[in-house]
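call fold(seq) -> tokens
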Amino acid sequence: MATTLFLSTSLFHTFFLTKPLSSPPSPTNTHSHCLNATKMAASEITEKVEMGANEGKKIFVAGATGSTGKRIVQQLLDKGFTVKAGVRDLEKAKSTLPQNPGLQLVKVDVTEGSTKLAEAIGDDSEAVICATGFKPSFDLFAPWKIDNFGTVNLVDACGKSRVNRFVLISSILVNGAAMGQLLNPAYIFLNVFGLTLVAKLQAEKYIRKSGINYTIIRPGGLKNDPPKGNIVMEPEDTLTEGSISRDQVAEVAVEALLHPQSSYKVVEIVARPEAPKRSFEDLFGSIKQH
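ret:
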């Protein structure tokens, strides 16, 4: 309350007390400035309420040191969640992830089976976000080890840990063959390294049959740059091209935990400069549930 009062007071001083006495603000400008001040104050209150509501809720993030995973960790912490980061390299995690009392590092490998994963997830996690991904190599089985079997292990581990919320970062074009996109350059390229998209699709099918409350997020080409444009969300097997900032992918993953409209859905996302800005309630609500 004190912070909000200070914000409103500061805005009053900025908009009114700095004006020359010979040029009093018009009623229209005064009304506009007051509205802006009210909106900013309300936004701050809403943010604090959200953080308070998330306090104490622990989320397990697999692939937490990856380019998208570390963004998910940061945004979860920003929202007031406690985070348990599943990582393979603790030293890398210490230098990559933020120093935060709400962050716990756990050494784990998704390829080592569901029992060890269940121990890492524990009985204190409320949801799991999977942001794992293999690194291109000459091992053509790598995509299946990570993107298929690793994801399946995580889902099975959730069952053993009694966690019933799962968010997966997948990719557009995973079902490219059924979409008639076999000659799409992106589909060809992404499958060069051991049929990556096919591996992801099989993992998706397993999730959907498992009974767990899921949200599968299929982003377009991932960009490390800051967001350029607003998020466009479409049903599964719709998008064949487009890109999106990893920051926005992380945002969608975190927001999926906050909006029940995201449950049991597969969503595809890209960013477009000309797209209108929509609320996440509206975005998730526009996609049919499975």
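The first strand starts at residue 58 and ends at 62.
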